[in-house]
Amino acid sequence: MTNSSASREADVNPAGLAVDLRGVVKTYDNGVAALGPIDLEVRRGEFVSLLGPSGCGKSTALRLIAGLNAPTSGTVHVARPAVKMNGNHPIGFVFQEPTLMPWTTVRENVRLPLKLAQVPFSAARARADAALAQVGLSEFADSYPRELSGGMKMRVSLARALVTDPDILLMDEPFAALDEITRFRLNNDLLALWRNLRKTVIFVTHSVFESVYLSQRVLVMTSRPGRIAAEIGIETTEPRGEEFRTSADYAGYCRKVSEALAPAYSGRSA
Amino acid sequence: MSRPDGSQPPATPASSSNHALRVVRIALPILVLTAGIVLWELVVRTYDIQPYVLPAPSVILETLVRDWDVLSRSLLTTLLTTFEGFVAAAIGGVALALLFNLSKWLEYSLFPYAVVLQVTPVIAIAPLLLIYLSQPTAVVVCAWIVAFFPVLSNTTLGLNSVDRNLAGLFQLYGASKLQTLCFLKLPAALPYILGGLRIAGGLSLIGAVVAEIAAGSAGAGSGLAYRIAESGYRLNIPRMFAALLLLSAAGIVIYGLLALTSYLVLRRWHESALGKEN
User: Fold this and answer.
1) ipTM
2) B4 contacts in A (CB within 8 Å)?
3) DSSP letters spanning B26-47
4) 3.40.50, 3.30.1330, 2.60.40, 1.10.3470: which CATH number matches A1-79+206-270?
């Protein structure tokens, strides 16, 4: 716990790693072993999925990387820019729910991270508007969250994560509660953003299809305690689009990932 | 990311059945009130009941107009007391809840006594307060004692109902305690605080009236409750009713104002202030 908090401040990792977890274990106060030990290396600009059944510690891993919780043992390295400026924050986090403040407008929700970093109002407002434009919601800046559909709320959440221009985007089953059509569309939009902005994305999901479609690397996790059981690289022609979703390649990868995932569910009754 | 997802912001279909329902909801209580008053007037006239037994509504109204000078001054006094008690309760309740939220130790040490104050009938405390405090102060303190608890408990509930993920987000972006309080906890607690204030408004009126009644003959008070007590001694029953009518009206207006405030503050975002069709 002590060494990890110190090393979180570590500067740019020489190996070009954005995130580096070594022997990380998380045990909750009530004695439940939630995670690990796991080792996880994520290169800069990589898109990695953590795939596994509910309760396998995927979200715990994400919270440890975000620094929201401290590991019980092991080290968590997160690459941070040498100088912190303009309210930029190295990590953006998208939760499973949109997690918006219902009492204020979409724009104010997106401006929040900058407001907390005390970025001057007009600059922060301009950046919030730019982030909203990135997710195609410019015209809804003055709406309240309740006036938006589930998919739009998720976009606002994404815009808020992007507004600090983070190097690393952590996404915790962000599209799990959406209908399939909306999810497919958001998948494509996320891929486009990732290609354009060159962020490192760690994406937690329990959907085999989503993980294969999005990521360069799928890490399959088992539960209690969460461990990484298999690692499957997804190689295909970039940029990916809808044609990849219907290709034989895609089906093959999905089968492979499903097979790797099966042991995680063994002994469980559906 | 070219287009937002399909669905439109919800439309508001002002259906005619909804409208009719609203008319009925307003008309029915008025109808009942009118019927009750007419029946009351008829009974008093038919059986020739004397005003010192049961005054007819018309006599009460007459008294209200004739004694308006005295009664309106009393009303003002009571309203002022209520207002002072209410403001003290609002500030005290919210401030105490914030302190409790900052320090568990403080909450554990003091919360039981807040409960004790709340569960002890104020009518029993009032005479004691009147011994130790000047009458105007005692009346305000009484109003405060009755009214502050709903504000305290509701605000506490609100401060504890903050979305865990939003709290995590504030933590992630390194928000200070003050930022978390101003930008997260207070806005999240606002609907609860307003709910507490709505209860506190009516209760501070009750507290003021109780203290005035307790002061009764001993006090030099001139509030509405004092008028009721005084009129009772003089068997001026119509004036008792007139004062009672004013107290009721004051209570309704206080509640209405607070409900309106709550609606205006929350209408853009909170479920409680939204129409059913949304």
Assistant:
1) 0.84
2) 136-137, 139-140, 149, 151-152, 155
3) HHHHHHHHHHHHHHHHHHHHHT
4) 3.40.50
